[in-house]
């Protein structure tokens, strides 16, 4: 980190947040270089060759509940760049063991009708958030340093988070099993004990977006989002360098500012003695969370769900009832593999027939929740869990490929021990980042910033961490008060 500056900004890491920052800065006329340790860019937003020729798999995220709602991506206008975000009629589903299922349709009215006696309770939970979805998104995905513009949305969201996040109240609203199972499946994305306030926040944001904008699947795979960002970066003079890990300050070219789309511990390692001790301690002690193990399948046909309507969903949560899922998440938090692990599943060909391979074979994407650092191959466990709700599934498996939690960081260094959220989902982390500090993106080193999912607003393909940091860099380092127009052709 020399004082001689050949570049304006160096961005370390090419995940959605790093690229969002890089694009914003390059569009402001700055000289930007992105350094990526892997040979391909994208971090958690990559699509790679599958296990069988003619089929591709998303390496991490495959379904994007926040892509259509993200203020950054709305400004960036993915559709205007040829990226087609497909929204299935069923946003997500939760199969149950009696052959029944809980279904979250894009239509709130249809979901209410499907949930029967609990339909009105679901409406009263979700409708105020759906009606004010923009305000909820601005509140949750903001940098939490100013009062929300839509206080009504913020209050409505906060009250419901407390209700669904506390053991004393999370079961009071519903009378039957489908509705609580449905919202619990969404809460499980946090990979944390249930109930909890952070998991409830995850459930209510994503649940509301399931009705407001839909949980979209990019046509062709998640890589198209990364490619759109990379094309814009190159168009505005930014440079991407892959195969360039950054482990110490010596690995960084000279620049006036540095943006890290990495774990906090990586920031501490790279900045070394330049970091004030109180910052260094907080960043090195940053808490990582429970883990996910990945299993990719290639199938000869659609999953044979006992409840056929599940087959219309872009995302399926497996784990059974609310009590079953809560037991599974508590087991994982205690370092044990659950007897029936929570499994997240997506069959992208449900909305994107172009993902079908020769002879109609199709990719199936799954994650199973496991203890941090687990080395277990979860293929058999995931197969068995799908079989509980789709008898005959194993007969359709053409091929499978497992990535144990302990190996997830091989493809993305931010996923320590399989922690795909880049940190435990805690209230503190979601609000203030890796340590108690006024600016959640500060590192204690002038001109160096943290923009990864370890900082607010947390995980997801939304680019907001990078967008928040880019505006700080423009203002504080370059005196640019107005961020650039991100629309195509500008």
| Share in β-strands | 15-25%
Biggest β-sheet: count, sense, barrel? 7 strands, mixed
Spans of at least 5 consecutive residues with low confidence: none
- The separation of the N and C termini measures 32 Å
- Overall mean pLDDT score? 96
Principal-axes shape call: globular
Number of strands: 16
Helix content: 25-40%
Q: Total number of helical segments?
A: 16
Q: Indicate the radius of gyration in whole angstroms.
A: 22 Å
The assigned structural class equals alpha/beta
Largest beta sheet: strand ordering: 7-6-12-13-14-11-15
What is the multimeric organization of the chains shown? single chain
Overview of the molecule:
The chain is α/β, with parallel strands linked by helices and 490 residues long. The chain is built from 16 helices and 16 strands. The strands form four sheets. It has a seven-stranded mixed beta sheet with strand order 7-6-12-13-14-11-15, sandwiched between helices. Strands 9-2-1-10-16 form a five-stranded parallel beta sheet, with helices on one face. It has a two-stranded antiparallel ribbon with strand order 3-4. Helix 1 packs parallel to helix 16, helix 3 packs antiparallel against helix 4 and helix 7 packs parallel to helix 12.
Short description:
The protein has 490 residues and is of the alpha/beta class.
């Amino acid at each position: 980190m020399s004082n001689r500056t050949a570049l304006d900004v160096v961005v370390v890491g090419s995940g959605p947040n790093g690229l969002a920052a890089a694009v914003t800065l390059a569009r402001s006329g700055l000289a930007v270089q992105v350094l990526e340790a892997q040979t391909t860019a994208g971090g958690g937003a990559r699509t790679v060759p599958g296990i069988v020729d003619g089929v591709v798999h998303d390496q991490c995220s495959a379904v994007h509940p926040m892509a259509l709602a993200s203020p950054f991506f709305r400004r960036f206008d993915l559709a205007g760049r040829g990226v087609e975000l497909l929204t299935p009629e069923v946003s997500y589903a939760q199969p149950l063991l009696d052959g029944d299922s809980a279904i979250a349709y894009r239509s709130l009215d249809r979901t209410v009708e499907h949930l029967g006696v609990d339909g009105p309770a679901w409406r009263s939970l979700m409708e105020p958030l759906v009606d004010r979805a923009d305000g909820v998104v601005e509140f949750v995905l903001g940098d939490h340093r100013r009062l929300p513009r839509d206080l009504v949305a913020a209050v409505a969201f906060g009250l419901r988070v407390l209700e669904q996040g506390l053991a004393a109240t999370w079961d009071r609203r519903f009378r039957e099993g489908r509705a609580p199972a449905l919202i619990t499946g969404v809460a499980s994305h946090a990979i944390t004990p249930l109930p909890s306030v952070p998991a409830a926040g995850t459930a209510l944001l994503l649940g509301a977006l399931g009705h407001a904008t839909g949980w979209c699947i990019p046509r062709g795979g998640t890589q198209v989002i990364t490619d759109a960002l990379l094309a814009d970066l190159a168009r505005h003079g930014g440079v991407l360098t892959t195969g360039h890990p950054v482990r110490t300050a010596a690995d960084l070219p000279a620049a006036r500012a540095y943006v890290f789309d990495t774990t906090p511990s990586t920031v501490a390692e790279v900045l070394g003695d330049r970091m004030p001790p109180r910052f260094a301690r907080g960043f090195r002690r940053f808490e990582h969370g429970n883990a996910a193990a990945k299993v990719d399948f290639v199938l000869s046909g659609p999953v044979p769900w006992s409840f056929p309507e599940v087959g219309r969903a872009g995302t399926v949560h497996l784990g059974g009832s609310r009590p079953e899922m809560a037991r599974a998440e508590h087991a994982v938090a205690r370092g044990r593999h659950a007897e029936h692990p929570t499994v997240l599943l997506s069959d992208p060909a449900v909305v994107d027939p172009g993902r079908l391979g020769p002879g109609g074979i199709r990719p199936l994407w799954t994650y199973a929740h496991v203890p941090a650092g687990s080395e277990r191959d979860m293929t058999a466990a995931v197969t068995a869990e799908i079989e509980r709700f789709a008898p005959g599934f194993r007969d359709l498996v053409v091929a499978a490929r497992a990535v144990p939690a302990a190996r997830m960081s091989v493809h993305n260094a931010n996923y320590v021990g399989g922690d795909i959220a880049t940190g435990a989902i805690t209230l503190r982390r979601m609000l203030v980042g890796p340590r108690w500090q006024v600016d959640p993106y500060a590192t204690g080193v002038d001109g160096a910033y943290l923009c990864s999912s370890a900082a607010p607003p947390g995980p997801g393909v939304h680019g907001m961490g990078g967008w928040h940091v880019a505006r700080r860099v423009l203002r504080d380092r370059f005196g640019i008060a107005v961020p650039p127009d991100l629309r195509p052709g500008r």
